[in-house]
Design a protein that fits this description.
The chain has about 70 residues and is mainly beta. Helices cover about 15% and strands about 45% of the residues. The protein contains one helix and three strands, in the order E-H-E-E.
Length: about 70
Amino acid sequence: CEQGPWRQMLAIIGDGHSNAGSIAIHKKFGFSVAGQLRSVGYKMGDWRDTLIMQRPLGDGDWTLPE
């Protein structure tokens, strides 16, 4: 992915902050929390949040696109 034209990689994680394993592995690979969508899913009697994580690829937003 780093050699392609892409600048950002996103991870959409269901069950928001209660999905500690997925969050931990994404952080290990350079992702950071970009936002949270609250109560966007309903499962087993509870509303669920979705966490959005983001990781820059290559220069990210530090340089202008060609």
